[in-house]
Design goal:
The chain is mainly β. It has no helices and seven strands. A three-stranded antiparallel sheet has the order 1-6-7, with no helix packed on it. The chain has a two-stranded antiparallel ribbon with strand order 2-5. The chain is elongated and about 70 Å long. The mean pLDDT is 85.
Length: 84
């Protein structure tokens, strides 16, 4: 009996508009910036350099975003994600 070849999973598609060519992976993470003071007009001065906590770990609420119709949706169940 011949071995079955594994079929490549289909690219996820937006459930609202159906497009699958320009999806974005988004997630919530903490961005830390140092507060350096307050200027003479009372504006809080914050350093532009930032540290992202959890960038190499599982972050909160990973999902896909469709810029075509501005829709966010869950990553399909069982989909493996690899960052390259």
């Amino acid at each position: 009996m011949a071995a079955r070849s594994k079929r490549r999973p289909a690219m996820p598609a937006c459930p609202k508009c159906g497009q699958n060519k320009d999806l974005r992976h988004i997630e919530d993470c903490v961005v830390e910036r140092r507060v350096t003071g307050v200027d003479e007009t009372g504006v809080l001065v914050v350093d532009g350099f930032y540290i992202t906590e959890g960038w190499d770990e599982a972050s909160d609420n990973p999902r896909l975003y469709c810029p075509e119709c501005d829709t966010q949706f869950a990553i399909p169940e069982g989909t493996e994600v690899e960052f390259t």
